[in-house]
Amino acid sequence: MEYEIISNYRKNDELRSSFNSLAERTFGLSFEGWYKNGFWNEKYIPYSVLYEGNIIANVSVNIINCTVKGNKRRYIQLGTVMTDERFRKQGLSRVLMEKILEEYSECDGIFLYANDEVLDFYPKFGFCKADEYRFRTDVNTDRPSCAEMLPMKSHEDHAEFLKLKSRLSSRSPVVTDTDDLLMFYLSQFMQENVYKIKGSDCLVIAEIEDDELTVYDILSDKPVDTYEICCCFGSEIKKANFSFIPENSSALKKYLYKEDDTTFFVLGSTLINDLPDILSFPALIHA
């Protein structure tokens, strides 16, 4: 079989359409809305196998520039690993992995999230399993909610949010330069998950389900009390889970986090050494 490996073709309508078609068949997911909203940029790079004009296999590179306790890092996240079912078991993912690992050998580390069906695949390239840790807490307050939802439905909403966010900082010891990935979620699936805390310059990205609050990020111009932020969502909230690592976690409970059908793999000594400080990457940079 004669095929070609291509990459960085997001502006090619035909190739992007073929990529989206494969993603829809594999994951039930399209990246077209992300592209049309203007947030698919040069940091998300599909490496794909092209055969007879169609994308038949892919491994995507996500460039994650971040700061870990003051140290600048350039990590690579691999994602959107998929092969057309007609072309599986032909070594196409292996070919793509080898090319990516060669091209990004100088980065500070590579990580990915694998489903249970392929746990034997990534160790062949030197990846090792790693633990992730997150935080949670019980919440007990009699206050009314002072968290006001901000709309995220239009391009104007997106621009206003990013303008406000540019003046704030994530309240985490691990700060990532990933507005592109953040907007993958907020412009599509999480349009009702941005809140402003009344009377402050604090934004919270969060989800409420029954009496549980899941906090994805806290953005503020100064340090905040993480527990107090949870109380701002009112007396109905009894528990809070954190899908990022808050900078102020002394009053929170740390636990070993394991997502169903997902294993965290890492490659690279710098990243491995940083893991005790990272604990886990924010959920809203997963791709």
Task: Describe this entry's structure for a reader.
The protein has 287 residues and is α+β, with helices and mostly antiparallel strands. The chain folds into two domains: 4-131 and 258-285, Gcn5-related N-acetyltransferase (GNAT) (Aminopeptidase, 3-Layer(aba) Sandwich), CATH 3.40.630; 135-255. It has seven helices and 16 strands. Strands 1, 2, 3, 4, 5, 6, 10 and 16 form an eight-stranded mixed beta sheet that branches. Strands 7, 8, 9, 11, 12, 13, 14 and 15 form an eight-stranded mixed beta sheet that branches. Strand 2 and strand 3 form a beta hairpin. The chain is globular and about 65 Å long. The relative contact order is 0.17. The mean pLDDT is 96.
Indicate the CATH topology of the largest domain: Aminopeptidase
| Percent helix range | 10-25%
Number of domains: 2
The computed structural class is alpha+beta
Main sheet summary = 8 strands, mixed
What is the C-alpha radius of gyration, as a whole number of Å?
20 Å
Percentage of residues in DSSP E strands:
25-35%
CATH architecture of the largest domain: 3-Layer(aba) Sandwich
Poorly predicted residue ranges: none
Quick one: CATH superfamily of the largest domain? Gcn5-related N-acetyltransferase (GNAT)
Order of helices and strands: EHHEEEHEEEEHEEHEEEHEEEH
Question: How widely separated are the two ends?
Answer: 30 Å
In terms of quaternary structure, what is this?
Answer: single chain
Work out the number of β strands: 16
Regarding CATH, which class of the largest domain?
Alpha Beta
Overall pLDDT, averaged? 96
General form = globular
Q: How many H/I helical runs?
A: 7
